[in-house]
Specification:
It contains six helices and four strands; from the N terminus they run ααααββαββα. It is mostly helical. Helix 1 crosses helix 5 and helix 4 packs antiparallel against helix 5. The termini are far apart.
């Protein structure tokens, strides 16, 4: 599946945003219980420093000064994006995306700022961070839906995970958010289970 560079960046951003929600975090960080104590999942956007760190991590330009209202607005957009990943069909996903980008007041414009080649920004120049995310990430999800690939918006199938990801594999076969963590952990568990059954 051919995805433009700026769309890929926006998809990475929306996945990371959705995965900051407490319900997306494994209860023990994904490593499995070690001492019988299960830690409560944490909100990756619990405060303003975390919001600034998120914006910096994704090189979001023009952020300016952020306040509690910005934090609440981004958390609300995060919840709407989580609904898109949970949508049972393309029509439901499309309706959710349409409402998101309409509320953000999308204003498509070509730009080549900060050394990046020409790409499209869908948010207004003075947009808030939440509108920036809703517009750009919403349009990236729209690209997936228009391509007939809504089923690529997935949640990790590991029973103790549930993190969001976009399955960009050629045959749509990806099941885990990470093959090195969740995938490998479940394969090892299945292998050990088979060994136990063989030895019984």
């Amino acid at each position: 599946m051919l995805i433009p560079h700026d769309t890929r960046i926006a998809l990475d951003t929306v996945v990371d945003l959705v995965n900051t929600a407490p319900e997306s975090e494994p209860p023990d960080g994904g490593s499995g219980p070690t001492d019988g104590i299960v830690d409560e999942p944490e909100d990756g956007l619990a405060d303003l420093p975390a919001l600034y760190a998120f914006a910096e991590r994704h090189h979001i330009s023009g952020v300016g000064t952020l306040g509690e209202k910005d934090l609440e607005a981004v958390q609300a957009v995060r919840s709407r994006f989580a609904e898109v990943f949970a949508a049972p069909d393309a029509r439901t996903a499309a309706d959710l995306v349409n409402r998101l980008v309409a509320a953000a007041g999308t204003t498509p414009q070509l730009t080549d700022h900060d050394g990046y080649d020409w790409h499209v920004h869908y948010f207004a120049p003075d947009a808030s961070l939440s509108d920036h995310l809703a517009a750009d990430c919403g349009m990236a999800l729209a690209f997936i839906i228009v391509a007939g690939e809504q089923e690529r918006l997935r949640r990790c199938e590991a029973p103790d995970c549930g993190r969001a990801f976009v399955d960009l594999s050629r045959n749509r076969s990806r099941r885990y958010c990470s093959s090195r963590t969740c995938g490998n952990r479940l394969h090892v568990a299945a292998y050990r289970a088979r060994r136990r059954e063989a030895g019984a």
